[in-house]
Inverse folding.
């Protein structure tokens, strides 16, 4: 029985006693109920999802449930399998849900396979395989490849089937998928059995049994034992056949695996047929037939009907035998199943020969011979022989490796002696050079420690300088506004000023708090860069958007002085730098421009496109500055507090911070200014990541 395409069947013997009939019907009812429960559960889940208010066919959970339901419907309502799978494929295609498309294509392919349209089945399986490879979905690549190979086996093209199995086996080994390794090797074993190479077939069956032991899955083990039982029956080893089939039947009955149980009953009937115990053979065939009353599996019925035909022929009931043989022959032709046609033709040949209908007997004999020749053509046998040679080669290679290991074990002693001598020589060499190396190491450590101490001294001086500057700024520029705010609150709290007077100070307080907040942000950014070293986080961003965001933040300050803010940057001025740092640079430059631009002035931010960078400028119509001030403003050691046109305070820190951040991002900053006419600050930033990496 090829996995996962099942051979199973249908009808109950009229010659059995009532007790046996009752037992069979009871088991049939239990198994059928179990199978129905699974389908009902899935249908209930689907119905529950569909009544939800937010239900949509784009829900992947809903699509997955449809595919699961289709799988469960395979042997019970094949038309519904096709309909459900096609619906799942449509919904998956609408949202390009590739996993859903794979499973639905496998379902459609299975429908056509079971109907005997193997070429159409291959078409859908290969579509599923292509999508699975596209998204590297290994599990479905293996399933699809296996199913394609199964279809070629049904068509009698064993060479093509074997090629596909070997590809799938190689991938399954690579990803350590033991389940698919078990299935693929079992299908290869069945190829050998179909060629009557039982010895090689059993080699693969034993390999499968070992994999199943690692999987610890009793159902997989039972499936393999069923196939082995069929092979042992064909070989005439009936004791082994009966032992394996009895064990598998016990597991299938316990687990209520209906399709495999029907197959196992058919194999047990086959074993009794080989023993020429026709009554018991028919009993087990009819047990299988009864289970198939609830199954839709025409392919599975072929071996059953043909086996029943042979059993009735053994009882010399040729007329009944002919009915079953013709039924199997009809199904085999419908499904284009060459092995089934071959077996049925042989049985019909015997029946017609017994009836002395030699003309028909000759027709069936010729058909049997023709198909036998087709299935045994040179290409198939050559491929299987190559695989057999490969297995033997692997065995010889293992034996050679074992012999080499023994020889290597003898040589290891000589190697150990040589290593011991070499070790002694190395110890002597080490002792001679030891003192010299230790002395060099100590000298190097002393030199390194001296360098470290000098660097730490420089860093300590810089940290002290940073600390002094921070305290100077805090004492000079933050303590004053905060002290004034505290004094005003104390006067209000003591009742020395009224509510209206206090409210009159609110605009001034807001201005002072904005100044404190801006100063603190600059202090934090500058302090981090000086004491800990700022960490650059470059990314792509739009300079035009960044300028507009800062205009939005400073609009209120501009409106108070009736200053016009103009953003001349084109929309797609993309840069690769640390966005937060460039944001601080732009905000400081615009804020400074606002301070030193009188009422009704203007501030313009624009850019000039260069080959590898943007040259940004912030131009104002303010008071301008002297040449001396232009030289000093970017010096980080300068701490000059200046006042704007409306007495706005500044720390003298902002521009030195701007310079540090622009330089760290691979740019330059400078200023041009004329007293009484205004100033224009320029800085550059890289256009793209490559330029940033080159100059940063």
């Amino acid at each position: 029985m090829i996995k996962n395409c099942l051979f199973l069947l249908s009808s109950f013997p009229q010659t059995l006693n009532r007790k046996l009939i009752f037992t069979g019907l009871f088991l049939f009812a239990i198994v059928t109920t179990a199978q129905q429960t699974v389908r009902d559960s899935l249908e209930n889940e689907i119905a529950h999802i569909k009544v939800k208010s937010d239900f949509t066919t784009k829900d992947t959970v809903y699509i997955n449930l449809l595919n699961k339901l289709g799988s469960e419907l395979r042997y019970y309502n094949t038309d519904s399998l096709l309909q459900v799978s096609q619906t799942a494929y449509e919904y998956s295609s609408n949202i390009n849900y590739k996993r859903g498309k794979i499973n639905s294509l496998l379902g459609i392919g299975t429908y056509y396979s079971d109907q005997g349209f193997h070429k159409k089945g291959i078409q859908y399986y290969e579509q599923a395989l292509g999508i699975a490879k596209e998204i590297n979905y290994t599990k479905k690549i293996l399933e699809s490849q296996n199913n394609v190979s199964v279809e070629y086996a049904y068509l009698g093209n064993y060479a093509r089937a074997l090629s596909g199995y070997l590809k799938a086996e190689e991938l399954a080994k690579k990803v350590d998928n033991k389940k698919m390794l078990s299935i693929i090797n079992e299908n290869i074993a069945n190829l050998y059995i179909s060629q009557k190479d039982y010895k090689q077939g059993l080699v693969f069956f034993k390999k499968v049994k070992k994999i199943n032991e690692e999987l610890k899955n009793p159902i997989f083990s039972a499936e393999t034992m069923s196939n082995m039982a069929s092979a042992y029956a064909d070989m005439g080893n009936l004791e082994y056949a009966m032992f394996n089939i009895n064990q598998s039947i016990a597991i299938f009955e316990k687990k209520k695996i209906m399709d495999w149980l029907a197959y196992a009953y058919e194999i047990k009937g086959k074993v009794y047929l080989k023993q020429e115990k026709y009554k018991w053979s028919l009993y087990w065939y009819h047990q299988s037939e009864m289970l198939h009353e609830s199954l839709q599996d025409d392919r599975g019925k072929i071996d059953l009907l043909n086996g029943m035909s042979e059993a009735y022929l053994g009882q010399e009931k040729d007329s009944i035998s002919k009915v079953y043989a013709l039924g199997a022959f009809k199904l085999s032709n419908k499904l284009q199943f060459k092995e089934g046609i071959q077996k049925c033709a042989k049985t019909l040949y015997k029946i017609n020969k017994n009836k002395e209908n030699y003309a028909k007997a000759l027709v069936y004999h010729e058909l049997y011979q023709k198909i036998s020749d087709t299935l045994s053509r040179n290409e198939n046998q050559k491929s299987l022989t190559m695989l057999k040679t490969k297995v033997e080669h692997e065995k010889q290679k293992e034996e050679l490796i074992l012999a080499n290991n023994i020889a290597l074990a003898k040589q290891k002693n000589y190697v150990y002696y040589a290593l011991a001598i070499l070790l002694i020589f190395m110890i002597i060499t080490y002792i001679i050079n030891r003192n010299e190396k230790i002395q060099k190491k100590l000298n190097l450590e002393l030199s390194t420690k001296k360098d470290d101490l000098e660097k730490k001294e420089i860093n300590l001086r810089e940290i002290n300088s940073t600390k002094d500057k921070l305290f100077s700024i805090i004492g000079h520029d933050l303590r004053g506004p905060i002290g004034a705010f505290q004094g005003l609150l104390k006067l209000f709290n003591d009742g020395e000023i009224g509510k209206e007077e206090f409210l009159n100070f609110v605009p001034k307080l807001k201005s002072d708090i904005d100044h404190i907040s801006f100063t603190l942000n600059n202090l934090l950014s500058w302090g981090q860069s000086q004491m800990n070293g700022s960490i650059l986080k470059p990314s792509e961003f739009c300079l035009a958007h960044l300028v507009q965001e800062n205009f939005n933040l400073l609009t209120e300050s501009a409106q108070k002085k009736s200053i016009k803010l103009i953003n001349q940057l084109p929309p797609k001025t993309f840069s690769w730098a640390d966005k937060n740092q460039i944001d601080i640079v732009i905000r400081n430059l615009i804020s400074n421009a606002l301070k030193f631009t009188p009422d009704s002035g203007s501030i313009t931010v624009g850019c000039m496109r260069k080959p590898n960078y943007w040259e940004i400028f912030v131009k104002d119509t303010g008071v301008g500055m002297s040449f001396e001030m232009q030289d000093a403003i970017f010096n980080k050691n300068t701490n000059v507090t200046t006042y704007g046109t409306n007495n706005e305070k500044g720390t003298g820190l902002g521009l030195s911070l701007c310079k540090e951040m622009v330089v760290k991002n691979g740019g330059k900053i400078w200023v041009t200014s004329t007293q009484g006419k205004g100033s224009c600050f320029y800085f550059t930033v890289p256009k793209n990541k490559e330029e940033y990496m080159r100059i940063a």
